[in-house]
Amino acid sequence: MVFKNYTFFSYVFFATTVILLTGHAHGAGLCDNSPNKQVCDSIVYNRTIPRDAVVAACHKLVSETKVATGVAHEQPNSTEIYNCIKKFDESIVFAKDALNSLNQGQPLSSNAYLLAARANYKLCDDGFQNSGKTNPIVKSTKLLQDMASVGAYLSTLVK
């Protein structure tokens, strides 16, 4: 098919290019220096405002922690699993406190709460390591640590 009016197609090409480049640039920047870019990208998605990204990170952290708690409950009873569940429950409180701090305009406090949540997830791993046992939920704790790190990082971008 021969097109007689190339101007129309030039406009369509130009408009498509602008839309694609603008859409790509929207999320650019928030995850560039993140401790885990892949996790950050999955949380930030197309958000451009750091505060919105932190809110999303906190909500996702609470949700994923509840999932991990369920997985931990399915494991054979042990002191280590019990301690992990306890630390997960504390981390949910920390994530909610991070949201409250953010809503009160205190992103640094939000950062501290998310770092405390990350430390709790690490304590779960450390409990297994110290007892010489293999952590059956290590993938969950690793993801939660990464998510908390990303949330803490994003909170440093909030002005």
From TrEMBL:
Keywords linked to the UniProt accession: Signal
| Signal peptide coordinates | 1-27
Q: Which branch of life, at top level?
A: Eukaryota
What is the protein name for this chain?
Answer: Pectinesterase inhibitor domain-containing protein
Taxonomic path: Eukaryota, Viridiplantae, Streptophyta, Embryophyta, Tracheophyta
